[in-house]
Description:
By secondary structure, the protein is mostly helical. The chain has helices at about 1-5, 20-50, 65-95, 110-145, 160-190, 205-235, 250-280, 295-330, 345-375, 390. The termini are far apart. The relative contact order is 0.03.
Amino acid sequence: MRDLRDGNFRRRLVVPGNGPVSALADVFNEIAERNQWLAGELGRVRQAVGQEGRLTERVAPAGTAGGWSLIADSVNGLVEDLMRPTSELSRVLAAVAEGDLTKRMSDQTLRGEFATLGSTVNGLVDQLSSFADEVTRVAREVGTDGRLGGQAKVPGVAGTWRDLTDNVNSMANNLTNQVRNIAQVATAVANGDLTQKITVDVSGEMLELKNTLNTMVDQLSSFADEVTRVAREVGTDGKLGGQAKVPGVAGTWRDLTDNVNYMAENLTTQVRNIAQVTTAVALGDLTQKVTVDARGEILELKSTINTMVDQLSSFADEVTRVAREVGSDGRLGGQAQVPGVAGTWRDLTESVNVMANSLTTQVRNIAQVTTAIARGDLTQKIGIDARGEILEL
């Protein structure tokens, strides 16, 4: 009896015979056996459920009614009651782990600390859902729709969730400032303003982009300054021979610089050759021609100047010939023939021819009269129309 009282359910009573004492011993042994069974079942269920996590394990039916069956049912009910919130919690957490934030602990029978646990888990899921929605919204606005300046608003969060929200907002704010500064500089460049630079504080690849764009602006500014300088020197100041010098440029900017220099060099060569020929013409040298390679309007100018030189040379040759024939050789009646001339050159040619013709007529009339006088014929007079010294003569 004392062993049973002290929890030793292995001891049994052995009473020989069939008397009342023997019957009492059998009842005692049956009570000890059922206690031993119950203790074993409780240990087994504790091991299976509490340590091995097999939540479907239950205390086996006692096979009898009364207190033994009530104890088994109570233990099984306790396991069931413990398993239900655990299963709910497991279901929700598994959904959260898979990114599904639509699940909630929905068992309305939860009380006490289980109800508190349910509210805590559901609140956590709500905050995660709100956080995910806001982060998704900001990411979509900034990354997809291009609407900068968005900020995530997750009310009631604290700790890590507050830190994550602040970090997302800081990232979005930094990205907004960086992109807007880059867009501002790019717009300025597109509008021809090369005075602006990217000044926002950045790191990593954004720093590389910042340095690249700022270098591009510097090169464009240098390129523009040099092209402006060369254009002003050549086109406005008339200082030929200028060349744009843009250090460090490559690719298209190098090609553009080379093209500007090539244009300036060609223009210098063409203008200097034209100036050389026109200067020679002004000095009376009609032997030079524009020989520089040219196209378009410069070619037309080249052809015009060379044609002018040819006509001037032809005009000079004819005037010289007529002057020599009439003034030096005494061969009157000569006429200058300059084909293709027009305008002033035609007028000059005609004036020379009129002068030579008038001089021929006057001299011949005077010679006719003086010849007649030499022969004793005093009946002839000089009848030509004359002026000045010829009139006096």
